[in-house]
C-alpha cells in the first residue's frame, strides 16, 4: 500500500444547494455562488451539484441551470454534476445541455451520472413518464451519451448540437457495488456517495480497481470519495454545527423532511436511540472537529481507502461557519 499524503490529494466540493430554515432557494443560489468563489481561491479542484426532486431543502433540481450559474460566477474551478440522474432524461437532451455548458465554459465542465431517481418513486414516475424503465438500460444510455459527444457522430441522423466533438469528462456515480462494475467495465472515473451510503464503499472501490479496463478516457482507475466534513476552530464548535446535519438525517430516516435546521446544544434531546444508531451508520464517513482532529482522521481515511480525490459536503446552518469549515479543510489538505 502506497503512502498517500493529503497534500498530494485533490479536494473538491459537493454542494447540495441546501435551503436553510428561514431562507428560500433564491437565497441558496446566492450563498452557493459565494461559497464557490471562496473555495476556488482556496485551491478546491471541482464544485459539483446534485439532482434531487421534490425535496424542500434541496434547490438544485434544475441541475444544469445551477451549474451554469456557478460556472458563470467563477473563473477556474471545474463545475459539474454529482450527479445527473440519467434515467430521468433523454441522453440527447443531457448531451445538448452539457455541450452548451462546455461551450460556454470550456475545459471546466464535468458530467457525473447516476441511475437512481434522486427522489421518491411517485415523483420519479412524474419525471420519467413512459421512460420509467430507463433505469434498466443505464449502461446503454451512458453509451448513447458518449456517442452524441463523439466527433464520429457527425454523419448520424440525430446529433447533439452543441455537444458533438467536445471532451466532457463522464463519471459514474454510485452508492452500491452495481456502479463499480459498470465504471470499471467502461474505463471511467468512479465517484462514490460515501457521505450517506458508506456500507458498501470499500467493497465497491475494490471491485472497481480490480476490474478496471483502461479506455480512451482513462488509463488507470480513479476514485473520488464524497465525505461529510464539519470543521471549526474548536471541537466543541464543530460538534454543535454538526447537529444540523444530524437533524437532516433524522428527517431522511423518519420521512419528516424539513429545511436545514439551526444547531442545538444537545442532540440527544432530539434523537431517539434508534435514530442515533441509524444516523451513525449512515454517517460513518463523516469528520467533525478542529483542524488537528479532522486532519488526523482524514490521514487515516486516506491510508485506509487510497482514494485519489476527496469531495466534501458540509451541511452547516450558518453561512460564515460553513465558509470557515471549507477554509480549514483546505488548510489541512495543503499543510
UniProtKB/TrEMBL annotation:
GO terms for molecular function: oxidoreductase activity, acting on paired donors, with incorporation or reduction of molecular oxygen. Residues 26-307 form the Luciferase-like domain. GO terms for cellular component: cytosol. InterPro entries: Bact_Lucif_Oxidored (IPR050766), CmoO-like (IPR019949), Luciferase-like_dom (IPR011251), Luciferase-like_sf (IPR036661). Pfam families: Bac_luciferase. Coiled coil: none annotated. To bacterial alkanal monooxygenase alpha and beta chains. PANTHER family: LUCIFERASE-LIKE MONOOXYGENASE. NCBIfam families: oxido_grp_1. This is Luciferase-like monooxygenase. It comes from Pedobacter quisquiliarum. The lineage of its organism: Bacteria, Pseudomonadati, Bacteroidota, Sphingobacteriia, Sphingobacteriales.
Amino acid at each position: 500500500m502506497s503512502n498517500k499524503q493529503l497534500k498530494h490529494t485533490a479536494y473538491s466540493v459537493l454542494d447540495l444547494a441546501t435551503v436553510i430554515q428561514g431562507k428560500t432557494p433564491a437565497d441558496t443560489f446566492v450563498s452557493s455562488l459565494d461559497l464557490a468563489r471562496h473555495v476556488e481561491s482556496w485551491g478546491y479542484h471541482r464544485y459539483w451539484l446534485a439532482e434531487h426532486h421534490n425535496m424542500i431543502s434541496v434547490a438544485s433540481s434544475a441541475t444544469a441551470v445551477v451549474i451554469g450559474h456557478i460556472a458563470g460566477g467563477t473563473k477556474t474551478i471545474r463545475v459539474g454534476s454529482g450527479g445527473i440522474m440519467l434515467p430521468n432524461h433523454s441522453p440527447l437532451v443531457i448531451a445538448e445541455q452539457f455541450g452548451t455548458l462546455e461551450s460556454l465554459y470550456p475545459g471546466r465542465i464535468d458530467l457525473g451520472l447516476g441511475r437512481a431517481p434522486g427522489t421518491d418513486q411517485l415523483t420519479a414516475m412524474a419525471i420519467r413518464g413512459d421512460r420509467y424503465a430507463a433505469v434498466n438500460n443505464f449502461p446503454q444510455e451512458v453509451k448513447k451519451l458518449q456517442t452524441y459527444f463523439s466527433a464520429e457522430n457527425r454523419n448520424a441522423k440525430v446529433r447533439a448540437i452543441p455537444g458533438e466533438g467536445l471532451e466532457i469528462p463522464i463519471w459514474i456515480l454510485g452508492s452500491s457495488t452495481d456502479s463499480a462494475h459498470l465504471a470499471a467495465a467502461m474505463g471511467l472515473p468512479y465517484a462514490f456517495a460515501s457521505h450517506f451510503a458508506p456500507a458498501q464503499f470499500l467493497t465497491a472501490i475494490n471491485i472497481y480497481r480490480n476490474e478496471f479496463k483502461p479506455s480512451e478516457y482513462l488509463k488507470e482507475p480513479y476514485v473520488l470519495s464524497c465525505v461529510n466534513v464539519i470543521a471549526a476552530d474548536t471541537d466543541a464548535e464543530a460538534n454543535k454545527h454538526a447537529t444540523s446535519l444530524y437533524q437532516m438525517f433524522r428527517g431522511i430516516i423518519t420521512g419528516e423532511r424539513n429545511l436545514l435546521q439551526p444547531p442545538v446544544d444537545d442532540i440527544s434531546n432530539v434523537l431517539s436511540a434508534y435514530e442515533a444508531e441509524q444516523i451513525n451508520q449512515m454517517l460513518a464517513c463523516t469528520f467533525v472537529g478542529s483542524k488537528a482532529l479532522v486532519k488526523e482522521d482524514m490521514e487515516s481515511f486516506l491510508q485506509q481507502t487510497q482514494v485519489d480525490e476527496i469531495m466534501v459536503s458540509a451541511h452547516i446552518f450558518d453561512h460564515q461557519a460553513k465558509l470557515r469549515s471549507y477554509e480549514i479543510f483546505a488548510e489541512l489538505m495543503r499543510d
